[in-house]
Write a structure and sequence with these properties.
The complex is a heterotrimer of chains A (about 400), B (about 350) and C (about 250).
Chain A: H1 6-25, H2 43-66, H3 74-90, H4 95-117, H5 122-141, H6 145-148, E1 174-175, E2 178-179, E3 183-188, E4 191-196, H7 197-218, H8 220-230, H9 232-236, H10 242-267, H11 278-291, H12 298-313, H13 318-324, H14 330-340, H15 348-362, H16 366-380, H17 388-393
Antiparallel strand pairs in A: 1-2, 3-4
Chain B: H1 2-32, H2 39-57, E1 60-69, E2 75-81, H3 82-97, H4 99-121, H5 131-153, E3 169-171, H6 172-175, E4 184-186, H7 187-209, H8 211-221, H9 223-228, H10 233-255, H11 265-280, H12 285-302, H13 305-310, H14 314-329
Antiparallel strand pairs in B: 1-2, 3-4
Chain C: E1 4-13, E2 16-26, E3 31-35, H1 42-49, E4 57-62, E5 65-66, H2 72-78, E6 80-83, H3 95-108, H4 123-135, H5 151-164, E7 169-173, H6 181-197, E8 201-205, H7 209-215, E9 218-223, E10 226-231, H8 233-238, H9 240-247
Helix pairs in contact in C: 3-4, 3-5, 4-5, 5-6
The chains are: A mainly alpha (about 400), B mainly alpha (about 350), C alpha/beta (about 250).
GO biological process, one term (chain B): amino acid transport
GO molecular function (chain B): transmembrane transporter activity
Family (chain B): Belongs to the binding-protein-dependent transport system permease family. LivHM subfamily.
Chain lengths: ~400, ~350, ~250
């Protein structure tokens, strides 16, 4: 189906299903209920799930397949955002030219940075990419202010040319009149679901991005990339030149990052230099590793996981904790809340850091490997039970 | 001429910090073969040792001073530090004033413990794993450490002053025969540079003249052979990790008065220190020190107005630019050995 | 004129003359062994042949073309394949995937961007890989993880990967080093089979005399960086100079 084998096609269907029905699936709690704050089905957050998912899928094509650890992918994210906002400023709020430009410009950037950085491998490659990203970040903040608007960030002003703008054009990002900010609502009993245009645009892009990543993973090109990771000496002595393969992977993953950055600006017409900072590069590394580097679904899981908990975990405060543990005796309740307190709310990054260390130490395959282990555990006990739902989600590279 | 001297001096303190962190990074890399992305966090913890000690020394109790009144006419409460209460305002005040230098003594045991725990608890399991895994696990550890500090000390920088005696500036120009005020250099930065020089000298002397250091140097050159001699190299490497942590910590303590410590200062320094290590040559101790000072001075030259007017923005990117050029033209760095960490 | 012509090759490392005036001519479709005591320069010579080292003097011609200064993948594309002392295979991939890579390299050259096609639907490649696997009796190991195989099987796979490219010259660097006797014999049998079935020139560097005498048609003895003698195995066995320099009592 679609040129995929059965297993991959199933995986693609699962992702498509999740992406299309996310506004419903992520809103399991009725409005006004105590648990409603754990609903993630609002456009802003769902857009972030999907956009970072795309970013991580692209990063995984480089790191997961070739093993080259880039600490500079945020640079492409920023480049993508700037491109889109510039198209708003010059043409109008239609996002399509901007997204197109974002992919092209980030590809050129990636080609340039990749060509130089890939002359070295191992930690030297990581440091080179890091240096390039930090340079881009510093320049965007200072000298390139005419292009990036420095610390303020790039945005659209009424004085901008916007040559395609007519009286009828929407004055916020849109796709041929389909305004990104618009949503339709569905009320169903106590539930309310938001179907946002911007989210669905991102979801469709994610599906395409994911589909292409499956094709790349299963292609001869993907095989060569895995061979690069496994043994470069043998690759050389097999008459293959690893450099163009890794460079192509670098450019492709840079284009994914540029697209993700472009989508950020398509949802919210702003672009700032902080998007290029190395902490943003670190974030995509976290996502990919946490989900499972080198697996198809891992990066999406990782991105969703981190973004969900970043938003939800950080909302939990002491009073919520107290209400959860109210059944405990007073002294014990306070003690439990006291112990959990550092890990929630603003302390969410601490939880993330610990989780990340644990994953690297005990679960190098990330959440996907965790899922596989659990699946194996279940398979061993009830031998007659088929493994339909878990195996679809946990699909390693080979 | 005076402008050049001034820039060299300005570069020395930052260069000292780079050199000290890079020295520790190289010790760890050279002995344990581990790329430690948490090394910046150790520097940061050192700086917070200074903050902590200064807070401890400032523990106060409140008394009501009947002699004074606040603006409403009520008797005013006066805070008195315990130290001043116990030792009298003279001695007690002096101890509080000298909290940063005293924090060095405080930081050494703290950093050694932190280093030992890190190495034994986590890093030793990563000796045989890929460098990418080492980077990842220490990167995660750095996040954890910095978040712990943020939890206890908040997100804002905490001013930590140097002792009063060092608060002024030295008119360096007069000593060299220039006009007064041509080269003004804060005393504390001078102290920092001298301190760094002493620490660097001590580390080198330790490696050169003690048996322990000789074994470690031999281990850096060829770990397996030393292992075959029946020497327990692992234990020495653990101690080396502790020492590297202590060096980073002390560098942090003394840096606290120059830049008020905040929880992310470690990451800020880490990126630059890695660049320094790479420029100096992975695994070369003299290279790390040399590159640290060179880049610090280069950075301060690039921030001169004359330079910036020709090459705008150069001060922001000079270090990265140098790193990229060195990596491409001389991948071993200034003084590195061949083949270290390639692949 | 042999297919491989080494003329007056010399290489110094600092004060050490690793190779001096090496002349070697390997006839097409023959099996030529290079033996010699440790430090005789065997590995240096091999690294010169595959372009990893550039000699200070002399020339290396393969089929009339110089190989000096070329990168490894270019030399390989000329028709020279190499087997390493420790098997160099793609440990993280399956046996079939390992086999497919040289097949792609043979068909598509050193780089081709085929990122959308499904590799398992490249029927010619899969068939080709399977055919070679069957040739070397590894068809049953098709789906195995390459890293999990025994040393002998890894060696077999490595040789098979070289064969997939249909090289004209196969360089073997101590192919049985570190192997148990049974694995060694299997490897010898495999190499004999290759020799009999294909038009291929084999240059083998070996320590193990058993391997050398069962395979080689001509033998060059290296000592201190220069060829001592070159002759047939029978003559080498009885050569007094060789006995003195290398074989010693081991051959007696």
């Amino acid at each position: 189906m679609l040129g995929l084998n059965r297993k991959d096609f199933l995986l693609f269907l699962v992702v498509t299903f999740l992406a299309l029905f996310a506004p419903i699936l992520l809103n399991p709690f009725p409005v006004g209920s105590a648990m409603a704050q754990f609903n993630a089905g609002y456009p802003d957050l769902m857009q972030r799930f999907v956009i970072f998912g795309i970013f991580a899928i692209g990063f995984n094509i480089l790191f997961g397949l070739t093993g080259y650890l880039s600490f500079g992918h945020a640079a492409f994210l920023g480049v993508g955002s700037y491109s889109v906002v510039w198209m708003y400023k010059l043409l109008d709020y239609n996002i399509l030219p901007g997204l197109f430009l974002a992919i092209v410009v980030s590809a050129v950037f990636a080609l340039l940075i990749g060509f130089i950085s890939l002359r070295r491998s191992g930690i030297y490659f990581s440091i080179l990419t890091l240096a390039f990203a930090q340079m881009s970040f510093s320049l965007a903040y200072s000298v390139l202010t005419p292009i990036t608007n420095g610390e303020t960030g790039l945005q659209v002003y009424t004085s901008d040319p916007q040559i395609l703008m007519s009286g009828f054009s929407p004055s916020s990002p849109h796709l041929f009149g389909l305004v990104m900010n618009d949503s339709s609502y569905l009320k169903f009993g106590g539930w309310e679901f938001t179907f946002n245009n911007g989210y669905y645009l991102c979801a469709v892009v994610l599906m395409v991005a994911f589909y292409l990543s499956i094709r790349i993973f299963r292609s001869p090109f993907g095989l060569m990339l895995r061979a690069v990771k496994s043994n470069q000496t043998r690759l050389n002595y097999t008459g293959l030149n690893p450099r163009p393969y890794t460079l192509a992977a670098f450019v492709i993953s840079g284009m994914y990052a540029g697209l993700a950055g472009g989508l950020m600006a398509a949802m919210d017409p702003l672009a700032g230099a902080e998007r290029m900072q190395w902490t943003a590069s670190g974030e995509v590394v976290l996502m990919t590793i946490l989900g499972g580097a080198g697996t198809l679904i891992g990066p999406i899981l990782g991105a969703g996981f981190i973004k969900y908990f970043e938003n939800i975990f950080s909302k939990i405060n002491d009073s919520i904790l107290h209400s959860w543990f109210a059944f405990l005796p007073d002294g014990l309740e306070d003690a439990v809340v006291f112990i959990i307190h550092p890990f929630i709310g603003k302390g969410w990054h601490l939880t993330l850091g610990i989780l990340f260390v644990l994953v690297v130490v005990f679960l190098p395959g990330g959440l996907v490997e965790g899922g596989q282990r659990i699946a194996r555990l279940f398979r061993r006990k009830p031998a007659d039970k088929t493994d339909n739902d878990t195996s679809a989600k946990t699909d390693p590279a080979e | 001429m005076d402008a050049i001297i001034l820039q060299i001096l300005n570069g020395l303190d930052k260069g000292s910090a780079y050199a000290l962190i890079a020295l520790g990074l190289t010790l760890i890399f050279g002995t344990l073969g581990v790329v430690n992305f948490a090394h910046g966090a150790l520097f940061m913890i050192g700086a917070f040792c200074a903050v902590t000690l200064s807070r401890i020394l400032n523990f106060s109790f409140e008394t009501i001073d009947p002699g004074k009144t606040d603006f409403l006419g009520n008797p005013a409460t006066v805070e008195t530090a315990y130290l001043e209460h116990w030792f009298g305002p003279e001695v007690g005040g002096a101890i509080i004033d000298w909290s940063v230098p005293l924090a060095i003594l405080f930081s050494i045991p703290v950093m050694l413990v932190v280093g030992f725990v890190m190495e034994r608890g986590l890093i030793k399991h990563f000796y045989k794993r890929e460098h990418a895994d080492q980077i990842l696990v220490t990167f995660g550890l750095a996040i954890v450490l910095q978040e712990i500090i943020k939890y206890f000390y908040g997100a804002n920088p905490i001013p930590t002053p140097a002792p009063d005696a060092f608060r002024g500036s030295l008119d360096f120009g007069v000593l060299l025969g220039f006009d007064p005020n041509a080269i003004i250099y804060p005393y504390w930065r001078l102290v920092y540079f001298l301190f760094a020089a002493v620490i660097i000298g001590a580390v080198f002397a330790f490696l050169r003249f003690t048996t322990f250091g000789m074994v470690v140097r031999a281990g850096m050159a060829d770990r397996e052979t030393v292992g075959l001699l029946g020497i327990n190299i692992d234990k020495r490497f653990t101690i080396m990790f502790g020492i590297a942590a202590a060096v980073a910590g002390m560098a942090g303590v003394m840096y606290a008065p120059i830049n008020s410590p905040n929880y992310h200062m470690g990451m800020d320094f880490l990126v630059l220190s890695f660049v320094v290590v790479v420029v100096g040559g992975m695994g070369s101790l003299p290279g790390a020190v040399l590159a640290g000072f060179l880049l610090g001075i280069l950075e301060s030259f690039a921030s001169m107005n004359e330079v910036k007017s020709i090459l705008p923005g150069i001060d922001q990117i000079i270090i990265y630019l140098v790193a990229i050029i060195i990596l491409l033209t001389r991948p071993r760095g200034l003084m590195g050995r061949k083949g270290v960490m390639e692949g | 004129m042999g297919i491989l012509e080494v003329k007056d090759v010399g290489k110094r490392f600092g004060g050490l003359q690793a190779l001096g005036d090496v002349n070697l001519s390997v006839a097409e479709n023959s099996c030529h062994a290079i033996i010699g005591p440790n430090g005789a320069g065997k590995s240096t010579l091999l690294n010169v042949l595959v372009g990893k080292l550039t000699p200070d003097t002399g020339s290396v011609m393969f089929d009339g073309q110089s190989v000096l200064g070329l990168s490894a993948h270019k030399i390989n594309q000329m028709g020279i394949s190499r087997v390493f002392q420790t098997p160099e295979i793609f440990g993280a991939l399956s046996v079939l995937e390992n086999m497919m890579i040289p097949c792609f390299a043979k068909r598509d050259g050193s780089f081709r961007m085929h990122a959308i096609e499904n590799m398992m639907r490249e029927k010619d490649i899969v068939d080709w890989a399977d055919r070679i696997l069957a040739d070397v009796n590894m068809a049953d190991k098709r789906h195995m993880h390459a890293a999990s195989m025994s040393r002998g099987d890894k060696r077999r796979l490595e040789i098979a990967m070289c064969l997939a490219q249909e090289p004209r010259l196969l360089l073997l660097d101590e192919p049985t080093a570190g192997m148990a006797r049974a694995d060694t014999n299997n490897t010898i049998d495999l190499l004999k089979q290759i020799k009999s079935e294909r038009d291929i020139t084999i240059v083998i560097i070996e320590h193990d005399m058993h391997v050398v005498f069962s395979l080689a048609e001509r033998i060059t003895v290296l000592a201190q960086g220069s060829p001592l003698v070159e002759d047939t195995p029978e003559n080498i066995k009885g050569h007094p100079k060789v006995r003195e320099a290398y074989l010693g009592e081991a051959a007696a």
